[in-house]
Design brief:
single chain; about 230 residues; Porin; 4 helices
Length: about 230
């Protein structure tokens, strides 16, 4: 049994996509990439159940509704290049969410969250279809000095959504393939980036990455975002 605390929201009343994908994904016994898929808006503060079939892990409500799955995955694209300090500073300065944000209490990128409560990871445009911004891994997010993997998955989440531009359409995360190459520790400062790779109708394909200031790749993801009716979150 597992519960998604209300703190880890994306939209106000459902779980942060990256966090929940990471929560399911860390149940998959592999050192390689993991693909998580969300089927329903993840409910908050209610007991949920794990189901396993072979290498697939399923997160379900106690009524049997499927919230999401995870299994070993594979990347389709090369990792994003390292964004230097100038790009990260430019991305922070240009963050659209300071002025127009569909989910301003989002655990990852919400401007209404305080330091140590949310990630306050603000990535703005730094060229065609790319975003960048800084992430300080606040000690309040750590457990035993380490940032839990689902929190790092959350940090890999929204830079992709902003690359597809949350202000142009309301989107939710549908699929995320991610891999963490190194653990993140309390107090680490990282460079986050995202890129819009393709669009097919209501689907937006994006890539994200986290690098250390020296260019070391800490984690990466590939995502599918799905445009939805904003009235669903009114």
């Amino acid at each position: 049994m597992v519960t998604i605390p209300a703190r880890f929201n994306g939209p106000d009343h459902s779980g942060n996509g990256g966090y929940v994908c990471g929560l399911i994904g860390e149940q998959v016994p592999t050192d390689g990439p993991v693909t998580s898929m969300l089927r329903l808006p993840p409910p908050l503060d209610v007991p949920l159940a794990w189901e396993r079939s072979g290498q697939e892990v399923r997160l379900e409500t106690h009524g049997g509704a499927l919230i999401g799955t995870a299994s070993p995955g594979a990347f389709e694209r090369e990792p994003l290049p390292f964004p230097d300090a100038d790009l990260v500073a430019a991305g922070l300065a240009s963050y659209p969410g300071f002025h127009d944000h569909p989910f301003d209490r989002c655990f990852t990128c919400g401007t209404a969250r305080e330091e140590g409560d949310g990630l306050r990871l603000f990535t703005g445009p730094v060229g065609a279809d790319r975003t960048a911004g800084p992430w300080h891994a606040h000690a309040a997010l750590a457990s035993g000095g380490a940032i839990p993997d689902p929190v790092t998955w959350a940090a890999l989440d929204c830079p992709g959504g902003w690359a597809a531009d949350f202000t142009a359409q309301t989107m939710v995360l549908g699929r995320m393939t991610a891999q963490l190459m190194e653990p993140v520790a309390a107090g680490d400062d990282l460079h986050a980036s995202g890129r819009l790779d393709d669009r097919q109708g209501r689907k937006f394909m994006t890539s994200t990455a986290l690098h250390r200031p020296d260019g070391t790749l800490v984690g990466r993801s590939e995502q599918v975002w799905i445009e939805v009716d904003p009235a669903l979150f009114a």
